[in-house]
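User: I'm putting together notes for a lab meeting next week and I want to include a structural view of one of the chains we've been expressing. I don't have a solved structure, so I'd like a prediction I can at least talk through. The sequence is below, exactly as it appears in our construct file.
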Amino acid sequence: MNPPINSPLDELGLNLTRRRFFESGGHLLGGAALAALMPERFAAADATVPAVDRLPGAVGPHFAPKAKHVIYLHMVGGPPQQDMFDYKPQMDDWYDKDLPESIRDGQRLTTMTANQKRFPVAPSKFKFSRHGECGMWMCELLPWTGKVADEMCFIRSMHTEAINHEPAITFMQTGNQITGRPCLGSWLSYGLGSLNADLPAFVVMVARSTLVEQAQAIGARLWSSGFLPGECSGVSFRSAGDPILYLTNPPGVPGEVRRRTLDGLQALNERTLERIGDPETRTRIAQYEMAFRMQTSVPELADLRDESQATLDLYGEQVTKSGSFAHSTLMARRLVERGVRFVQIYLNHWDHHANVSGRLTSGCKDIDQATYGLLTDLKARGLLDDTLVIWGGEFGRTVYSQGGLSKENYGRDHHPRCFTMWMAGGGSRPGQIYGETDDFSYNVIKDPVHVRDFHATVLHLLGFDHERFTYRHLGLDFKLTGVEPARVVTDLLA
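Assistant: Thanks for the context. Below is the predicted structure for the 494-residue chain, given as structure tokens.
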């Protein structure tokens, strides 16, 4: 006989309880049935995987991972590949000539250039030189990065379908152009958990650019857990002031009072969870507990006084400026050093529709020495072997100029057909230069790598078979790489 319904809350709890009948551990028959129906991919982690990589509450990898941490450096806006890594000296002879229709081949255009009467070729104004034993060409704006070229695995043949920022960034982060899906960091938080109970598994920082001309909207939708458990969402650290708001107890409130308050809230939340069964209540309990532990761990994390001057010098003069890219990369190293699984850094103002000369020069200055410092520091501490560093944007830029063109300045529109990304450490192949584009840096002509292929490769380095790493939602087995074909690019693996 059902209990009396005295309020809308009672009715909600009853309905939710009915819906969850076969999910509840208290119903032995339902639990047994689910266990019998559970496909192999939901089984426990492979017994050959070291115990440290199969943490309580985490799914665990399918095989021993080469990478245990990720630092993802996303340049928001789409860096111009032909001005940074995809050297095309042949374009000097094409200055201000129209891009051949055979090259553009009816490509979809954005609204920014769809009405242009011409598509004049804009050769890169920057000089290039080879770096490292791998001989990678880099532009003159990246002298520090060039020093660690042999640590990097370059992919010059990335491509995507998305041509505008919002769907392109969402696709790069979540594997789908529509918002609402879990991002890569959330998938790895769900799969691996954290190595430090006092810090989140997934941390996000939005660094501040020196030159502010054209920014894209960056928000929590990009580090959302989607349909995964709420505790898998990224925790955003602020770029100025305290990294996390309200970590410090209010004046006159000692730690023991805060502890008793949280214990009381937890008791109430647990009663609500037992009564209604809403998984978001479990998330709230976990967040309160994590916040309490972070009162101690975050101030220690943010205090750079224990860093030597030699280490600070690696990252450049802006390293002590809170919110700078250099400061963010040093914080990323400190986070992975303390067991955080996934650190995402966003840096805006890479949307080069105009003033490539000024914007790219400023952006490269922001990242150049800091990138060198991060890779050098990680390697010196023995962290690069199991930390995968990723650099890239959401798409590339066109070889033709948007707006006015001169040999000293020009703009470039969005270009999804080819762009460059790189990885370093974490089992990626150092010194690899993979993929090739045509003379115009417009189409991939050798070894294409789709965003789904890239995701499959990253998951592989972290011990996951992308086909088996799924989560049941709305009756479907969702995965980061979606339903279309994806492959692990083995040539990118060490």
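A couple of points you could mention at the meeting. DSSP finds twelve helices and 17 strands in the chain. The longest helix spans residues 356-380.

User: Perfect, that's what I needed.
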